[in-house]
Amino acid sequence: MPHILLIGTLDTKLEEFVYLHSQLFKLSIDAPTPLQVTLIDCGRLPTQHEAITITWPQLVQKYGPGGDFNFGTSPRGDIIKHMIHCTTNCVKQILQTTPVHGILSAGGTGGTSLVSAVMREVAPLGMPKLIVSTVASGDTGPVVGETDITMMYSVVDIAGSNAMLRNVLGNTAGAMFGMSTAYEKRLLSENQLENKGQQKLRVGITMFGVTTPCVDKIREHLTKKYQVEVFVFHATGHGGKAMERMIVEGKLDAVLDVTTTEICDHLMGGNMSAGPTRLEAALKRGIPNIISVGATDMVNFGLKSMVPEKYQGRKLFEHNPTVTLMRTTEEECRMVGDFMMEKIKEHAKVTENVEVWIPRGGVSLIAVPGQVFEDDDADWVLSETIKAGLKGTGVRIVEDEREINDASFAVAMAESLMRLCGKEKLEI
C-alpha cells in the first residue's frame, strides 16, 4: 500500500484535514496491506490531534533554520517563508529515508503557496502531487511551475464542513489514493525492468510549432531505429525548465535541444523565458547533448496590443489571436549567440559530448526563404558569434546549408546523438 504525505496548516484547517485523513483510510479498508499516511502540521500556531504525525513544535524545532523566529510579531509572508523552509527540510528527509508515493494538501492562498513551494523544491517529477485550492481556477503558473502538480478547485472556501466541501475533499482523497497506488505499482515495474537491463535510452527533445516537422522526424527515426524513449518538451518557458529539471533528477540520458527560443525570450523580455540557467543542466551533467538554434528568429508575446511599446515598430507576426512573434535583429542574434557559447564554455563538463548544429537554410518554418521572418544577415550573425566563441574549445560545430525542418537534417542530428551515446541501430 502507498505512503502518502498529507501536509496542511492545521491551526486553520484541522477539521478538513482530519476528514481527508479519514477518507484516505476508508478507501484502503479492503487493501491487503495497510495504507500509511504521514500528517504534517505546517500552520502558524501549534495544534493537537491524534491524527497528526509530525506536530508543529516538532517541525519547527527539528527542521527549522536555527535561531529565534518570532511567530507572534512577524508578518504573514515571513511566517510562510519560514514554514516553507521547515517543511521542505522535513519532506526532504522523509523522501531520503522512506518510500513516498504521493503528497496531498488543501488550502487557500497561503497554504497553497506554502505546500506548492515544498512540492516544487523536493518532490520528484512523476510523484503524484495534488492540492485542493481556492485559487485553482485562476492563474496557476506560479503554483505549478515546471512540475506536475495537480490542482483541484475547492468550489467553496476551505473553512468549515459542508456538503459541497465534503464532496470535493472526498473526490480528492479518491484521486490521491488512485494516483499513489498506481505510482507505487509503476515504480515496482520500472525497478524490475531496470534490474533486467531492459530500460530504454531516455532522450529529451525541445519543440515549438515552427520546429515540429524536425522534431517529429527525429522522434520517428529514433523510436524506429533504436532502443530509445523520447520525451518532447514544448519550449514555452516551463517546458525548458521541465526538461532541465528531469536532467538534474537523472531522468534523461541525452538531449537533442532543437528549439532554444526560450533564450530569446529571456534576453528580450518575452513571455516564454526559461530563465537565466537555460542550457546548464545537460552541460553540467556531461550527458550527450546536441544544441541547435531552432526558433531563435523570434521572441514571444501575447496579444499584439500587449507587445512592449519599445518593440511596436519592429517586424511582428500574429502567430494566432493570442500569440505575437517578434523577429530578432542582428544585435539580438549576437546576444543569443553570446549566451549560448558562454554557457557551453562555462558549464560543459565533457566537451566531447557537446555539439552545436546550425541550419543555415532557416531556423524555423517562417525563417526560410520567402517567409515572413527570413533574415539571412541576422542568422549569419548568430552563426558567426557561436563559431567564434567556441573556437578552440573542442566542441564540434556542424554548420549545414539545409533548413532546420529538412527531414535529412533532422535524421543527421538524430544519428549524431546516437553516435555520442554509443548506440547501434536495431536489427529489423
Can I get a quick summary?
By secondary structure, this protein is α/β, with parallel strands linked by helices.
Structural class: alpha/beta
> Order of strands side by side in the largest beta sheet?
7-6-8-9-13-14
Count every helix, treating DSSP H or I runs of 4 or more residues as helices: 13
Could you give the count of β-strands? 14
Average of pLDDT? 95
CATH class of the largest domain: Alpha Beta
CATH topology of the largest domain: Rossmann fold
Helix content: 40-55%
The multimeric state of the shown protein is: single chain
Q: Do you know the CATH architecture of the largest domain?
A: 3-Layer(aba) Sandwich
What ranges have pLDDT less than 50 throughout 5 or more consecutive residues?
none
Shape: globular
Question: Which radius of gyration do the C-alpha atoms yield?
Answer: 25 Å
N-to-C SSE string, H for helix and E for strand: EHEHHEHEHEHEHEHEHHEEEEHEHEH
CATH superfamily of the largest domain: Uncharacterised protein family UPF0261, NC domain
